[in-house]
């Protein structure tokens, strides 16, 4: 049940709300700012919404601001000064709440004759106030509509923050989420379609499996990483002596996933013979390990994913039609790519920015930045506020750090094609935040005053267009086949000395990190340990050596070991 704090020197609003809104829980009211601050401390994390009166008929000593001398020094009748403070006391309390609890929704309640709110419009958001009409029924109805709307939005935000996948508020995505929830509870297989990086495995693991209400484990297999001759043993298991080298029995993923969910990624890579075996599993609930004489029973929720068109593969003879029909194609779902979600792009950006902010390395850099700027270090649950524009709204908490994304930076990100979809997007945002923080911590003189939007605001972390361009440029560079022949020839001898080694079965992310790690180690040796030269080659910036070093640290590259190897 949502908890609401009423700040009012009288009980009128409390009685009104309790009478007409019994579905909500109302905390003991606060009569002034001192009691408000105490209540917010006492009920920390429990207050969902604040209802705030404007006019407070309280003693002079209880009025904000605490230091009233500047107001009294302007002259005039002290009695009139205090009367004005009483008539607008709620707005002073609102300022304090916004500084200490910037994300806590507040509804300011006032009558039309109580205060000319237009004079204080810059202190209020559109949803922050409601005019009351001295009619209990109408006032309660207006408040209830506003309270229910704000609490519903807050609930959606909390739910979205806890989800591993951002669904958004569009009708299509809400419908997709509901459809997946229904399919998760059924016994039939689920087909998830979508391009690389759209979150197919994430949805299977974190959304479908928990809602299937199965007690068994979630087991995932990326079929694109398995050699054809090992695929059968990996799926069905093998008994000792089944073939040369089978010195012991090994259970397959069908056994490990018993009672739970089996996720087969890139189902199109399954050979035709194994497709027949999988069909028998779906028809009979049984399978036979390699070399076994008896069948074993299995009970699984099967989820398959593909970035190919299975119907087209059936027509081409590459996928069995009977298996395709058993996979329940009528209910297949397609996860949209990032380019198809332009309408909620800003919300996606904010959601992923919160994720990358929580990364340990970026959290350490934020703590360094906060210490340099005299700001409190962000807590484990504190998120950066993300603003698109050239300035942060002045009502924000000056102690809370904000990411300021210039409109041109936002446009660059929004218009990029993102072939790697959300995986590529998240990695890019993580690099953007890391590179920006390194620049601010190590070389603050490179940030021009106009880049800050509001010069002198230490709480602003500006992500500049040039940083975005530098990170996006390599992803839009021409391939080797498109590059001029003389460039390929000039670099060919050097590149031929670098042999990249990857392990079969590794995830795409692990392979990507392995390639980057080996390339940076090779480049470090080629540049004789000169990080500045590496920065010039990779980022066209000889002063970016610290960035290169930080990235190498992130990848687990030990520079001391490389240096000893180079010296030896």
From TrEMBL:
Keywords: ATP-binding, Nucleotide-binding, Phosphoprotein. PROSITE patterns: RESPONSE_REGULATORY, SIGMA54_INTERACT_2, SIGMA54_INTERACT_4. GO terms for biological process: phosphorelay signal transduction system; regulation of DNA-templated transcription. GO terms for molecular function: ATP binding. It comes from Nannocystis pusilla. This is Sigma 54-interacting transcriptional regulator. The modification 4-aspartylphosphate is found at residue 53. Signal peptide: none annotated. Residues 3-155 form the Response regulatory domain. Residues 166-434 form the Sigma-54 factor interaction domain.
